């Protein structure tokens, strides 16, 4: 069983920055495939960024086009924590952000149904 707890959300003005954290339980965090999704009010949950442990035992980062160049996903295996650094925030980034994990390699990292373990989410609100 993997438990995930997000933190770091809040209210920020457009153009500002936030860093989200996702603390994970388990002794094999370094091999977890991790991802961030977000869900705006009245909309479906959508993929934001993925940090996939892959071939050659290295990590691969993937981003939705809407956040590419502004958001950076990373992890600290010593702290069992996944991060999402969000810069140049826009009002359309307003959503509940959730991290998710999978212990074996996903066939499609951008699909939410690929992930078994989810955090409770953290609210990010960007004012114009």
Structural class: mainly beta
Separation of termini? 40 Å
Tell me the radius of gyration. Answer: 14 Å
Question: Which regions have little confidence, pLDDT < 50, spanning 5+ residues?
Answer: none
Average pLDDT confidence is: 95
Report the major sheet: 7 strands, mixed
How much of the residues is beta strand, in percent? Answer: over 45%
Shape: globular
By DSSP (H or I, 4+ residues per run), the number of helices equals 0
Question: What's the SSE pattern?
Answer: EEEEEEEEEEE
Number of strands: 11
Helix content: under 10%
List the helices and strands and how they pair.
Elements: E1 4-7, E2 10-13, E3 18-24, E4 33-39, E5 46-54, E6 58-63, E7 71-76, E8 81-86, E9 95-102, E10 117-118, E11 122-127
Parallel strand pairs: 2-11
Antiparallel strand pairs: 1-3, 3-8, 4-5, 4-9, 5-6, 7-8, 9-10, 9-11
What does this structure look like?
A hairpin with a 4-residue loop joins strand 7 (71-76) and strand 8 (81-86). The strands form two sheets. Strands 2, 4, 5, 6, 9, 10 and 11 form a seven-stranded mixed sheet that branches. Helix content is 0%, strand content 51%. It is an all-beta fold and 128 residues long.
């Amino acid at each position: 069983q993997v438990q995930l707890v997000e933190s770091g959300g809040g209210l920020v003005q457009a153009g500002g920055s936030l860093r989200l954290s996702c603390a994970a339980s388990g002794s094999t965090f370094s091999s977890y495939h991790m991802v961030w999704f977000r869900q705006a009010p009245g909309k479906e949950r959508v993929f934001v960024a993925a940090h996939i442990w892959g071939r050659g035992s290295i990590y691969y980062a993937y981003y939705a086009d809407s956040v590419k160049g502004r958001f950076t996903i990373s992890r600290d295996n010593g702290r069992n924590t996944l991060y999402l650094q969000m810069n140049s925030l826009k009002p359309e980034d307003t959503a509940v952000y959730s991290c998710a994990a999978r212990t074996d390699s996903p066939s499609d990292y951008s699909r939410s149904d690929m992930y078994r373990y989810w955090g409770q989410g953290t609210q990010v609100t960007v004012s114009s």
